[in-house]
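Reading a protein record of the kind used here takes only a little practice. Think of the row as the fold of the chain written in a discrete alphabet. A record is reproduced here so that you can trace the correspondence yourselves:
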Amino acid sequence: MKTLKEADVQPLDLLLFSGTDGVSATIRFVEQRRLGRGDYSHAGLAVTRDVLDLPFLEPGRIYVWESTMTAKRGFLSNYTDRIANAELPDDGHDPEITFGVQLRDLELVIPGYEIGGGKVGWSAYRGERPHVDETRRHLKDLHDEYGHSPYTADLVDVFAACYPATLKVADFFDKVENRVVHFRNHLREKIGKPADRVDADHHMFCSEWVATVYKRLGIIDVPDPRLAAPTTFLVKTDLFAEPVPLEPEPEPAQER
């Protein structure tokens, strides 16, 4: 195991997580059956201000860019690590819950996961990295387009990552959802209110989001990012090192 200070985490490295809840257990079970590896149930990727120049990111700190649920307070916070999204909405209001693509301080996330009995793994990217200017351009575009995308609401989409045969069923539900979204937004525009929903193409499962970023950067060739499960990056490619477990920094010794 390594602490974050001991690990040489670089932007675009893969970050993997394993929780203790029933959803995590189900994802790991399905991955083990279909991919032969089920030790991680959630995925994100490492970014810094150097490659994603957003004003709320602190220089020198490492963030995990992921699609997940976070809650600092309230009932649902009992089912999260309570580490909030680093980005506040435009109105400055600190939301109770963020359910979708977000950026979180990795140094805070690691102990948050450990307290809940989970684990965090760092998998270094071993391929050729895009030029930093190209990376910045693509990541900024991705943030503009998907930076606030909600988590996948359709569980069929989630299982399609391991069972591609269900993708047609997922497509059907996505089309139905899109019709409802477009109709609702049309009605809101008629009464002078802004659209408040996005189509199904902008809903992101955790590993779908990671695959979307890697595909945009040309790092991996994924025909459909929806077919990526958290451990797919380890099983289907040789671009990522075996995950190294990350542990919190030790508490400073108290003076006597």
The longest helix spans residues 167-190. The CA atoms of residues 23 and 156 lie 14 Å apart. Strands lie at 2-3, 14-18, 42-47, 63-71, 97-105, 119-123, 244-247.
